[in-house]
Amino acid sequence: MISFANPKGGAGKTTSALLLAGELAARGASVAIVDADPERWISQWGAMPGKPANITIIGDVTEDSVVDVVEDASTEHQFVIIDLEGTASLMVANAIGMSDFVIIPTQGASMDAKGASKTIKLIRNQARLAKREIPHAVLLTRVSAAVASRSLKNVRDQLDAAGIEVFASSIVERAAYRDMLDFGGLLSKLDPKHVSNLDKAVQNAMDFTAEVITRLKDAQAEQGRAA
Ligand SMILES: Nc1ncnc2c1ncn2[C@@H]1O[C@H](COP(=O)(O)OP(=O)(O)OP(=O)(O)O)[C@@H](O)[C@H]1O
Ligand SMILES: [Mg+2]
Fold first, then answer.
1. What is the pLDDT of residue 162?
2. Nearest Cα to 97, choosing from 82, 76, 75?
3. Residues whose CB is less than 8 angstroms from the CB of residue 196 and which lie 6 or more positions away in sequence, other chains included
């Protein structure tokens, strides 16, 4: 189970959760998305045509039911992805406590360190309660395709210096990602004639997904060694 958490609104949780789910589904995996975002973007996306049959969306979830819902979904699907709300809540804490990996989308440009560090504190507390590591990493999002890589490197260096894991891939600001949420279906179903840089958007989603899989495998191997 992979959760997307950051109390900062608009950090890109919903967008990156859907990108990951879409890519995993495109590779043939069975994916459940638990939509715990009060805006219900993913449920609305799923109600539009184009949702692949191997993505199941579970929108009916409360802080009381989230543990049961995720456990049930995990028995039926290879991947369970949870898109969390942009606040700190019992729902968020419960979801983090159950996660195999927590992804912390953080806007690259503004580098909302506060939201990210709040989430990391919460993860560390939940890890202590659960007496296990909860693997996690910051994902820099909404990175401008044009921005000099130097400023991004600065952000990465700061996170590194603070001992915080950061994804090597970041999510670039792309119209294709907005269109996917607005019009439904997978990225690959968008029309390249109408969406600029669709190929780059698809490649970005693939790179991110490949890194998630590698990190999940590494975390599992690590936990196998610790056990
Ligand atoms: N990489 C991106 N490229 C283009 N638009 C993006 C990108 N990431 C996010 N957006 C847009 O920014 C807005 C906020 O993103 P998103 O809904 O993914 O954030 P969130 O963290 O889920 O927010 P909330 O806390 O409100 O749930 C949306 O309109 C989305 O389409
Ligand atoms: Mg959201």
1. 86
2. 82
3. 175, 176
State how far the Cα of 77 lies from the Cα of 66, in Å rounded to an integer. Answer: 16
> What is the CA(31)–ligand 1 centre distance, in A?
21
Question: Which atom of ligand 1 is nearest to 16's Cα?
Answer: 18
Domains annotated for the chain, with CATH where assigned, are 2-176+189-226 (3.40.50.300)
114/75: higher pLDDT: 75
Q: Give residue 207's Cα distance to chain centre.
A: 13
| Average pLDDT value for residue range 25-35 | 97
**Pocket lining: 142 vs ligand 1, CB cutoff 6 Å:** yes
Residue 90 burial class via C-beta count within 10 angstroms: exposed 0-12, middle 13-18, buried 19 and up: exposed
Mean pLDDT of the chain: 93
